Amino acid sequence: MAVSAHCTGVINCILLATCGFSISPTVFAEQELIVSAGKGLGKALLQRNSISAAEMAGVNYSYLFASSGNASNLWQWWGQGSYSYLRLAHHNENQQQNIVEIKPVLRWYPRNEPSGTFAEAGVGASYLSRRNFGDIQLSTKLNFALHFALGYRFSSGHTLSLRYSHFSNAYTNNPNPGFDFASLNGHFNF
Hints:
Layout: H1 2-23, E1 31-40, E2 55-69, E3 74-90, E4 93-109, E5 116-128, E6 132-133, E7 136-137, E8 142-153, E9 159-168, E10 179-189
C-alpha cells in the first residue's frame, strides 16, 4: 500500500509539472551577436600614450537578463562576453593583443519599448594576452573593462552602435596607463 501511494504521488507530480509547462507561454530570451571593428585612440581620454594606429576587430555575445520600464523609459540588463583582436605596427614590430572580457551591461531607451536610440554602459573583467602594446606598458594582464555606447535599434531588432572601450587595472597596481579604443558595432538579434 505504501509503495502504491508513493507511486501515485510521483505520477501526480509529473502530471502537474507537465500540465504547468504546457499551459505556460513559451518565452525566448533575447540574444545578440555583435560584430565590431574599430581603432585605437590617442592619449586624449583616459590612457597616457597613444595607440591610435591600432586596428581592432571583435565579436560579442549578449544575453538579455531583465527589462524594466515605465511610460517614458526602458532599462535592460544584459550579460556580455567578448573577444577582441588588436594589431599594431610599432617600431618595425607587428604587435597583437587578444582581449577576452565578461561584464554586465545596462542599456537605457528613452521610451517604453526597445526601439530607436539608446545609451549603454558596461563594467566587468578582462584578460589581455600581453602587458605591453605600443608605447603602453600595463602592470597586469587581468584588468577591468569599461565601455560606453550610443546606438540605434531598428524595427527589425538589429542595431548599430558606437562604443568607447577602456581597459586598465583601476589603480590596483602601479603603473596604471590603461588603453582605449573606439568601435562601430553591428548587433544581430536572435
